[in-house]
Write a structure and sequence with these properties.
It is built from eight helices and no strands. The protein has helices at residues 4-27, 34-40, 45-56, 60-78, 83-89, 95-106, 110-120, 126-132.
Length: 149
């Protein structure tokens, strides 16, 4: 049985985690780190990291990078900025790290994605294209092998 103070603390932590998640969604292009996010909700960085992973199934950094890569994908589909410009526009400070994370998350490099996405989403409204092309982490990707059980 959960005591009332523990339940209250849990609800308070969940509200704080939601504020962190909302801040990442809004400010993904800004320099964000776990310490700054934790200070913003009056938590320690370690506690925020543990609770965020428990609540959302991924680290704060992984969530931030997913938001940045999603935005980069939209900018790549638009086609008017270079990969380097997009890297810095979405808040990444290293082109190498950006390209590596993009490739891990999307399964292809930003340049290849630009070429293939332009053809795949031609004529589709951007709101639909964004939903259809949303990155899926490798651990979340559906299995390609048939279930024989």
């Amino acid at each position: 049985m959960t005591s009332r103070p523990a339940a209250t603390t849990n609800l308070r932590d969940l509200a704080r985690l939601r504020r962190v998640k909302d801040r990442i969604d809004r400010e993904y292009a800004q320099p964000l780190d776990v310490e700054a996010l934790a200070r913003g909700v009056h938590m320690s960085a370690g506690h925020l990291s543990r609770q965020f992973r428990l609540a959302y199934g991924e680290s704060v950094y992984a969530y931030l990078m997913t938001r940045r890569i999603e935005r980069a994908m939209a900018l790549l589909r638009r086609g008017d900025l270079s990969v380097t410009a997009i890297c810095f526009t979405v808040g990444c400070s290293s082109l190498g790290t950006f390209s590596t994370r993009f490739t891990e998350l999307v399964g292809m490099s930003p340049s290849v994605y630009r070429r293939e996405a332009a053809q795949a989403t031609a004529g589709i409204p951007s709101c639909v294209a964004r939903q259809v092309t949303r990155p899926v982490r490798n651990r979340e990707a559906p299995s390609t092998e048939p279930d024989l059980a």
